[in-house]
What we know:
Shape: globular
Helix content: over 70%
Number of strands: 0
Number of helices: 7
Number of domains: 1
Amino acid sequence: MNYFFITLFYSGLAPKAPGTIGTLVAFPLGLFILIYLDASTLFLATLLITLVAIKSINKYELETGSHDDKRIVIDELVGMWFALSIAPAIGVTFEEISDLSNGFLIQALLSFALFRYFDIAKPSIIGRIDRDAKGGIGVMGDDIVAGFAAGIASSSLWQGYFYLQTFI
Length: 168
């Protein structure tokens, strides 16, 4: 169960770009929760998964002696879900997703792209956490911060675009 969990349903076993594959698995799951439940449920579920993941990763690292194994992609789910719980945190029905004027889909896709950027480029504090923090906190920490940064950036870009539309 632990390996199934930390590899996010074995998506971390993908031979190429396991982090991106993990994020692609996490994205529709997060959208499903946002559409059929709400942003606060997604946020709280993410907090719970984060706590369980830190403990599971610590156990895995103790057993294997390997820190931040590329197959561990539960951190991608956490980062993606934090981004989604911030940016397109509006209530929409399944039918309203394709209505671009509400910004849900645009912000969700921006959150995905920005999260992958922050997770790969590791600018500023994200890189410092990735390099310096140990154990489950180290594995999860950079993705948590990348998720929050992606959600805030996505939301800010959408709001900036919306604000500029009032002048055009």
